[in-house]
């Protein structure tokens, strides 16, 4: 799909937005997969407040993107992709954390009594 690897892929919001553009599709797919996997990672590591870590990582990503590209991202499609990735990260991370911590909380409540 991609002729050459570009180190700016995670930060590039200036790529020509078209379904036939393979670089755009790689950028979009890598963003969404990274956010999905990060939600699972945060749920496994922190087990609580995944939304807080997700928002912090997203704000850092926007800051680093602005610094790398020397411009604040104003492309609405990029913001839509980032927002959907953030939503995906928060939802899957919080659900995983809820179901894994639910069994931990029941264990703690039984051990207290």
TrEMBL record:
Membrane topology (UniProt): Multi-pass membrane protein
Keywords of the record: Membrane, Transmembrane, Transmembrane helix
Keyword Lipid metabolism among UniProt keywords: no
Cytoplasm found in the keyword field: no
GO cellular component terms attached to this protein's record: membrane
Segments crossing the lipid bilayer: 24-46, 53-70, 76-99
A Pfam entry, by short name: SYS1
Subcellular location: Membrane
InterPro entries the record matches: Integral_membrane_SYS1-rel
Superkingdom of this protein's organism: Eukaryota
Protein name: Transmembrane protein 244
Organism: Gasterosteus aculeatus aculeatus
């Amino acid at each position: 799909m991609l002729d050459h690897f570009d180190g700016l892929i995670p930060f590039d919001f200036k790529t020509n937005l078209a379904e036939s553009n393979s670089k755009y599709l790689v950028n979009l797919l890598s963003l969404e997969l990274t956010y999905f996997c990060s939600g699972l990672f945060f749920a496994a590591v922190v087990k609580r407040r995944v939304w807080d870590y997700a928002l912090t990582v997203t704000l850092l990503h926007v800051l680093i993107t602005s610094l790398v590209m020397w411009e604040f991202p104003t492309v609405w499609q990029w913001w839509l992709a980032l927002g959907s990735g953030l939503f995906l990260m928060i939802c899957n991370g919080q659900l995983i954390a809820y179901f894994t911590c639910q069994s931990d909380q029941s264990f703690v409540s039984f051990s207290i009594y």
